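INFO worker-7 received task bundle
INFO bundle size: 2
INFO processing item 0
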Amino acid sequence: MDLTQLFERCKEIFDGKQTFVLTTHINPDGDGLGSEVALALYLTGKGKSVSIINQSETPAYYTFMKSLFPIAAFLPEKHGSIITEAEVFIALDTNSPSRFSAMKGAVLRSGALKICIDHHPDREAFADLYIIDEPATATGEIVFKLLKYLDHNAVTPPIAEALYAAIMTDTGSFRFPKTDSETHRIAAELLDCGANPTTIYQRIFEDGPAAKLRLLGRALDSMTILHHGAVAAMTLRQKDFAETHTSEEDTDNMINYTLTIGGVKIGLMFVELAEGVKVSFRSKGAIPINALAKEFGGNGHMNAAGARIYGGTLDDVVKKVVERAEHYI
């Protein structure tokens, strides 16, 4: 089916159902949060009962999203019944139930119609309706098109703000390879609908604590250049977080610094967690970095992917991933 047919099926579901639960992946980013907030605002405006329930807390630099629409962090005793009793469950910016983490059981037990709206490849079978557009720069772009299909005047100023944040963050401020003229036309329409690009950028990227910069300093200081200058890797250990009074969420976007070095084609960032290691992968050009991530149980886009690796020390993980990275240069 093309997007128009998928949107029409979605419209039928929206028209015929009343209670909705929306979610996104664990450790939500701007695209996941902006997409679910925008869709929740639209559905609420149509008189629907809507809850946003995410596995993870909303990162501090996205708390302004909660002023647009309430976002709850999943508590089994409080939210389990809300999920299982909903008529419609919508997953945004993820097509894998495993990325719901502890919510997965409640979601799979639910008799709700399940909709997946996403732009990632390799979907898992769990939904009744998949609206997946891999060429899209962001899930927010798909939601924008869906809302315009449903109602030409659907994009109110708060919805425009949420969708602009979604698209701006997932395109790396409109510089990643998928960004094209259509992306900019959508962004322009969102500005016309009330999004303020200066305010949104400042809230996300220029309103953090000094501790985050200290953590960035640790990450940059750890950087090593490998494989004859083609790979750059950064490492953060648990002690770095303890000594700078920061957390995993403060690492957001740090991986992108690896690709600012001339000659570097692959960027890697390793974050030691209480359990396991989080690895972020980035690449330039036609290097399918998501294939490298898949070797370690992860996934993502061709030029941006991630994985969480359990078992083995941080140093073991770094050694294995760096060795395999050479095969993708």
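INFO item 0 finished
INFO processing item 1
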Amino acid sequence: MEIAAAQVKELRARTGAGVMECKSALAEAQGDLERAVTVLRERGMARADRKAGRAASEGLIVAYVHPGGRIGVLLELNCETDFVARTEQFQALAKDLAMHVAALNPLYVRREEIPEPVIAEERRVLHVQSAGSGKPPAVVERIIQGRLEKFFVETCLMEQPFVKDPERTVAQVIKEGVSTIGENIVVRRFARYQLGETSDIG
């Protein structure tokens, strides 16, 4: 089918994709602009998956201080090249992530970094809370597993709903950044400081 130049222009404005990519997506979507946006996002996610294993040793450290000066965050965001680290899009993503850490106070970057004793203690507490419920052991175990998943969401940066768009997790936001920026992006670590409290380092 014939793809109008105006459609390509609008799709480019909405997604930042190249002309040929937009034409291809519109053709696949049979001219449906919303479907074409989805096609481009799906393709971007696939490319992001392929980039995930690449080394990310460049990047930057950003500082964010919440208005009022009572909470501050240092966050290291890595990418593959110094060129990308200097781009406005990458720097904006780093600042957004630091602001998220200030707002939602994650304790770890990802669940794999949680020490096993911490998980064991959380599981023990959940067992104690479930004791005497009268429910079959299999049901209790499912309840505990569900609450453990909630614990991961509350404490791990990558699993939290993104503060600026709770419909997406932080991991999804970063993955979309990978698909548009074109390099692997990794949150290496962060430190959050709150006035009068001990800082947590992820």
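INFO item 1 finished
INFO post-check item 1: The chain has three domains: 5-51, 58-110+156-201, 115-148.
INFO post-check item 1: The domain at 5-51 is CATH 1.10.8.10 (Helicase, Ruva Protein; domain 3).
INFO worker-7 idle
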